[in-house]
């Protein structure tokens, strides 16, 4: 049962409240996950982030700064927001949910089902995270793996005109949650690739970085399709479920990553800037 609904007016105050109230308190973004029946444990305290002014987007020369309170629909509709991120936001069906879901909730939430998070990982995005003792910058994976989760205030997406990002997803229907989503970011120099970041996400997969593929491609010509398919699934062992067997999901990981790599290499992906 809900015991308290709190309305902090500054990020520091919100972080201090969370520290004081402990694990029964949750930051409230759009509430689509927190208010669902799947939320466990049910929140006893909600810390509403609406008063923090975190819903703004700033487009600067060197980077995009996206407030964690931006809804996915606002990003999708913003002509100035990064193209690949707009595509990722559009992958969350439906519009009603996108109107409520926030970037902060998407990143911090447990659901693993849209291109927003892998796209931001592929773009080398950094989070500005608020703790009671100050602000820290960290990567998305680092944040999701940490035990002590702070308040996500902003997402900083570097603008690099030479960086290309491509996203692909497979779902059983247009309204279904994706079985696998893949995102690849890279820089092309002539016929060589650099700064390769490949991330996949899906049921039974979680958010997975494809480290072997990334390091093997670094500074090289794009590998053959056969090699890409082998490297992409190296060490990837998705769990089987009603969406597909482990083998089928491994096949999807390889194929979607292969398509992303080619799209980004050819500049057909959604470029970062
Ligand atoms: C019926 C239903 C259908 C759904 N369908 C889809 C779908 O098709 N695709 C999809 O991708 N997702 C789907 N979701 C999941 C949900 O919409 C997403 O996870 C959503 O992006 C969460 O955002 P939110 O702002 O609503 O988060 P909230 O519910 O407010 O919060 C989610 C979690 O993130 C934490 N949090 C929120 N904001 C911050 C912050 N700024 N800093 C730190 N922590 C924070 C909260 O404490 C909570 O633990 C669905 C959910 C429901 C209920």
Largest sheet: 5 strands, antiparallel
Gap from first CA to last CA: 46 Å
Shape: globular
> In CATH terms, what is the architecture of the largest domain?
2-Layer Sandwich
How does this structure look, described?
It is globular and about 55 Å long. The chain folds into two domains: 4-158, 2-Layer Sandwich (Uridine Diphospho-n-acetylenolpyruvylglucosamine Reductase, domain 3), CATH 3.30.465.10; 163-271, Enolase-like, domain 1. A hairpin with a 2-residue loop joins strand 6 (126-131) and strand 7. Helix 9 (225-232) crosses helix 10. The protein has ten helices and 13 strands. It is an alpha+beta fold and 273 residues long. The strands form three sheets. It has a five-stranded antiparallel sheet. The structure holds flavin-adenine dinucleotide. Flavin-adenine dinucleotide is lined by residues 26-34, 36, 49, 68, 92-93, 97, 100-102, 104-106, 108-109, 111, 113-114, 151-152, 177.
Throw out a few tags for this protein:
273 residues, alpha+beta, Uridine Diphospho-n-acetylenolpyruvylglucosamine Reductase, domain 3, Enolase-like, domain 1, five-stranded antiparallel β-sheet, 10 helices, 28% strand, binds flavin-adenine dinucleotide
List the helices and strands and how they pair.
Layout lengths: L3 E3 L4 H11 L3 E4 L16 E4 L8 E3 L3 E5 L4 H6 L5 H8 L4 H6 L2 H6 L7 H7 L3 E6 L2 E6 H6 L5 E8 L4 E9 L6 E12 L2 E11 L3 E4 L1 H7 L7 H8 L13 H21 L3 E2 L2
Parallel strand pairs: 1-3, 2-3
Antiparallel strand pairs: 4-5, 5-8, 6-7, 6-8, 9-10, 9-13, 10-11, 11-12
The structure holds flavin-adenine dinucleotide.
